[in-house]
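From the methods appendix. Each design record in this collection lists the tokenized structure first, followed by the designed amino acid sequence. Records were kept in a plain field format so they could be parsed without special tools. The example shown here is representative of the layout used throughout.

RECORD:
FOLD TOKENS (426 positions):
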């Protein structure tokens, strides 16, 4: 009966549109009261869920992303991407994807990516004759690349949810190849759709201008190397790298590009504080929910249920992918990682699946969920920036959604795509 109280109240609250943090917190409180436990347990677990030193990386990476948007770094990355791939069919769509890949390697946030790159690219694409649904779909699907390539703070969340037993450095490295593979898959899809719709390409600016664009974007691109190289080599931790990212972004924006003034700094700070507060509230509430699942032995029940269906790892991974894709339609990314990791990680370990590999699969699943209503955060941001309805975007999102699912299946069943790079650096 306690299982029904926990999951039933959670689903009921979500069905009536309650914010996800309150769904998690209220359902946890209701279950604790039903079990006769002290209500303060919920607060204790919420506090312990966010009182983790490694969690400090999240607000700092969010802050660094805001500083980069307001400090001119994102604009220069887009200009470099335009010179590099703008001459391909559907040029601005290709620019959008490459720019999202480059910016994602700095911000680590899909929402920041969709907002920053989309805010610059979608109006330009509309002016050049691209349909807004195409511009939005390219933007929101390319934004999830940021979740795979370092410094993805969702990988830090996964490591914390896994009990701190999965290396953040290995996760950062494992996401590089799948992230680039997703970018390539989306570029092919964007080219195919652009060819069918007759979208133009942009003139090649020449190698001289391309070199100049590269040179002007190097200060921003160096941050990728600093974060990845520092964490991978062990010079600093992921948390320390997030602080370095903030300082570096501030120095570049103020001293090199000279585009960040005091009002921009204040706006970036307030934006980071608001985003961090929302994210940490969700994480804390999800920690209470996750503790109750462990208390009720949901993990053991899940392993037994999956073993009763199949003992084949291929089938188990397929079932898990289907479940995660379904959960992603109504659950945001942070709570999904915090809740599902403690449940599913013991399952995949029981079938001999590497936790680092499963982390990439989990994050890609959750990322695809950010573009699927009714809780599609990145899709909502893209539609708001593009000025179209969710329905308009969903009518033509399927080629891009299919490309993302194709990469998900490829990464799921070819573990070497995730694991060979971490193995090489060990």
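DESIGN:
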């Amino acid at each position: 009966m306690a299982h029904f109280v926990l999951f039933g109240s959670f689903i009921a609250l979500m069905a009536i549109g309650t914010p996800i943090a309150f769904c998690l917190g209220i359902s946890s409180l209701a279950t604790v009261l039903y079990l006769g436990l002290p209500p303060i347990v919920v607060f204790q677990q919420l506090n312990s869920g966010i009182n983790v030193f490694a969690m400090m990386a999240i607000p700092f990476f969010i802050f660094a992303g805001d500083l980069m948007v307001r400090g001119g770094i994102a604009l220069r990355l887009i200009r470099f991407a335009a010179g590099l791939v703008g001459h391909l069919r559907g040029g601005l769509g290709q620019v959008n994807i490459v720019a999202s890949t480059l910016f994602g390697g700095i911000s680590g946030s899909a929402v920041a990516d969709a907002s920053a790159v989309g805010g610059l690219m979608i109006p330009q694409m509309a002016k050049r004759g691209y349909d807004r649904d195409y511009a939005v779909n390219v933007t929101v699907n390319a934004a999830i690349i940021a979740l795979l390539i370092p410094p993805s703070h969702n990988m830090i969340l996964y490591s914390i949810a896994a009990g701190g037993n999965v290396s953040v450095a290995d996760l950062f490295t494992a996401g590089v190849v799948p992230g680039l593979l997703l970018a390539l898959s989306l570029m092919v899809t964007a080219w195919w759709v652009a060819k069918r719709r007759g979208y133009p390409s942009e003139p090649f600016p020449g190698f001289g201008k391309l070199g100049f664009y590269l040179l002007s974007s190097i200060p921003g691109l160096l941050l990728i190397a600093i974060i990845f190289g520092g964490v991978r080599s062990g010079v600093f931790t992921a948390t320390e790298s997030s602080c370095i990212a903030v300082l570096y972004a501030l120095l570049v924006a103020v001293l090199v590009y000279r585009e960040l003034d005091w009002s921009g700094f204040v706006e970036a700070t307030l934006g980071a504080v608001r985003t961090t507060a929302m994210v940490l509230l969700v994480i804390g509430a999800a920690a209470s929910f996750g503790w109750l699942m462990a208390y009720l032995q949901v993990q053991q029940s899940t392993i037994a249920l999956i073993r009763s269906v199949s003992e084949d790892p291929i089938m188990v991974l397929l079932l898990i992918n289907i479940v995660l894709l379904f959960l992603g339609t109504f659950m945001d990314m942070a709570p999904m990682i915090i809740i599902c990791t403690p449940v599913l990680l013991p399952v995949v370990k029981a079938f001999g699946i590497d936790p680092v590999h499963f982390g990439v699969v989990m994050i890609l699943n959750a990322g695809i969920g950010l573009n699927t209503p009714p809780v599609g955060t990145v899709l909502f941001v893209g539609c708001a920036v593009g000025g179209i309805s969710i329905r308009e975007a969903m009518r033509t999102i399927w080629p891009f959604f299919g490309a993302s699912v194709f990469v998900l299946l490829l990464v799921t069943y070819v573990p070497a795509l995730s694991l060979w790079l971490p193995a090489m650096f060990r």
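APPENDIX NOTE: The radius of gyration is 21 Å.
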